Amino acid sequence: MSDRLRPGAEAGKDPRRHLLSVAELGADGIEEILRVSDAFVEVGRRSIPKVPSLRGRTVVTLFAEQSTRTRLSFETAAKRLSADVLSFSVDTSSVKKGESLRDSVETVAAMGADAFVVRHPSAGAPAAVARWVDASVVNAGDGWHEHPTQALLDCYTIRSVLAERAGRPLDEAGVACFAGLRVAIVGDVRHSRVARSLVLALGVLGSRVTLVAPGTLVPPSLEGWPVDQVSHDLDAVLPHVDVCYLLRLQMERGAGAFVPTLREYSATYGLTAVRAARLSPDALVMHPGPMNRGVEIADDVAALPRSVVLRQVANGVAVRMAVLFILLGPAGSAGGSALAHALGSAVGA
Ligand code: CP
To answer: Which pLDDT value is given to residue 342?
Structure first.
């Protein structure tokens, strides 16, 4: 598989592996990551949830923007794989003394790094880091562009809930559950890298996506977005979806200027308990976090059994373990025997 995480591989130019965009993965690549994640979910249930697969490797988390979930999730994932973790926060680094990002990245790379996990407010920053260093790079969210591992953990969560409900073991789940799945992505699509990656992932897996937003919060062009329709009427859409995926109104990116008032936005596009009652009994409510409670999601909706927000967070660790394992593990590590070997060895054994 791993060639799907290694765009230069076919040309024989770049032996490193990266995850910069969901678009690079294709359905097979996504399915493989979900299958490997199944194994790491099982590791997470062990009394010592740790395997030695990446012992001796170093993972750098380079965050130039705030994060709770993604950063801690990647760091937990790397530690559970026994990698060493270097945590580089731009806000407390020499970038604040005027050092360029490139010099900073090359400095950290000189200490010996096998992978950089990069979050940055500028689209394309992880791709730039991939050009500067001789290490694998994972996009942990770049500007309005993409957030590939968020989309992967969201797909993983949908698949695991649906498999559980059907009474099917996860290792038989595949990705067939996504074909024809009706998903509404609601809210600030314009500023959302999460929406872009999720739409690309669901599109390639055959789901039917409806974007629900005021016209001002729909991207100016939807070219390359495999969506079925755009709606401005959340109440009309809700009864017809299997998943209602809420997006955070991104005030820090100026979203406040795109809506008349927060109160009016919430009244029209917020998922209140009254509105959630329009969903079919089995429909899921999802949110990538952090949530603006009382804006896009009401407190009591976040607490409903159909809300799987914390399950998304929990699955994020296993999905990120899978990504790091595939990128940095032994060649062909996603193949059954290497994975089985890695998972069979407890740390210290
Ligand atoms: N979902 C997400 O990316 O959250 P953080 O910004 O907390 O990482």
So the answer is: 64
Ligand 1 atom at shortest distance from the alpha carbon of 68: 7
Structure tokens given for 92: 């407390």
Any ligand 1 atom below 6 A from CB of 121 = no
Q: Write down the pLDDT at residue 340.
A: 66
Q: With a cut of 50, list the residues of the chain below it in pLDDT.
A: 1-2, 4, 6-14, 348-349
Ligand 1 contacts CB of residue 313 (under 6 A) = no
Query: How high is the pLDDT of residue 254?
Result: 72
- What distance in angstroms lies between residue 61's CA and the mean position of ligand 1's atoms? 14
Instruction: Specify the DSSP element, H or E, that contains 116.
Output: strand 115-120
Instruction: Tell me if 290 CB under 6 Å of ligand 1.
Output: yes
User: Can you tell me the distance from the alpha carbon of 252 to that of 195, in angstroms, rounded to the nearest whole number?
Assistant: 17
- Write out the DSSP string of 218-267: S-S--TT---SEEES-HHHHGGG-SEEEE----GGGTGGGGSS-HHHHHH
**So what's the pLDDT on residue 7?**
45
Query: CB of 148 closer than 6 A to ligand 1?
Result: no
pLDDT of residue 2: 42
| CA separation for the pair 50, 179 (Å, rounded) | 34
Task: Please provide the distance, in angstroms rounded to a whole number, between the alpha carbons at the two ends of the chain.
Answer: 29
Query: Can you tell me the distance from the alpha carbon of 212 to that of 320, in angstroms, rounded to the nearest whole number?
Result: 29
The answer, yes or no, to whether any atom of ligand 1 lies below 6 A from the CB of 67, is: yes
Residue 253, number of CB atoms within 10 A of its CB: 16
